[in-house]
């Protein structure tokens, strides 16, 4: 599926479209260049899912946990940009998150592809020449 975001004002509608069509996957790997809007889109997804917490990039914490009145489980938001070895991911107990049944949104999954669950949904955000974004999943 493709969703186009023409302007930042469209992001909430695009996020709702994504939520409505995400299927049964729980782990979502977000691919895109620096500045493509991965964190911004994940923030919009969390808002659509009823998260009232402040959603920020977990660049230094590696994982943030958010809660929603709509969902029975937490949402986990990962940023693997600063990971240097897979041992760091093993040490954080990634399996407890990825196989928990909770939604997991992963930024920079390229660095851990070897350990992603086989049913991970791959989401690509591409910046277009006109500055719009195309989300494919």
TrEMBL record:
Pfam (any one): TsaE
Keywords on record: ATP-binding, Cytoplasm, Hydrolase, Magnesium, Metal-binding, Nucleotide-binding, tRNA processing
A GO CC term attached to the entry: cytoplasm
Single GO MF annotation: ATP binding
Keyword check for Signal: no
Localization per Swiss-Prot or TrEMBL: Cytoplasm
InterPro entries named in the record: P-loop_NTPase, T6A_TsaE
A GO BP annotation: tRNA threonylcarbamoyladenosine modification
NCBIfam families: T6A_YjeE
Stated family: Belongs to the TsaE family.
Listed PANTHER family: TRNA THREONYLCARBAMOYLADENOSINE BIOSYNTHESIS PROTEIN TSAE
Name this protein carries in UniProt: tRNA threonylcarbamoyladenosine biosynthesis protein TsaE
């Amino acid at each position: 599926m493709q969703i186009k975001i023409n302007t930042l004002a469209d992001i909430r509608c695009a996020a709702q479209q994504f939520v409505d069509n995400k299927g049964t996957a729980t782990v979502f790997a977000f691919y895109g260049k620096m500045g493509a809007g991965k964190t911004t889109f994940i923030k919009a997804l969390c808002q659509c899912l009823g998260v009232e917490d402040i959603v920020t990039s977990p660049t230094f914490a590696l994982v943030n946990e958010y809660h929603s009145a709509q969902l029975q489980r937490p949402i986990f938001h990962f940023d693997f940009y600063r990971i240097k070895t897979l041992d760091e991911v093993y040490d954080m107990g990634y399996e407890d998150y990825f196989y928990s049944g909770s939604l997991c949104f992963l930024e920079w999954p390229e660095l851990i592809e070897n350990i992603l669950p086989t049913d991970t949904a791959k989401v690509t955000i591409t910046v277009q020449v006109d500055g719009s974004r195309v989300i494919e999943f």
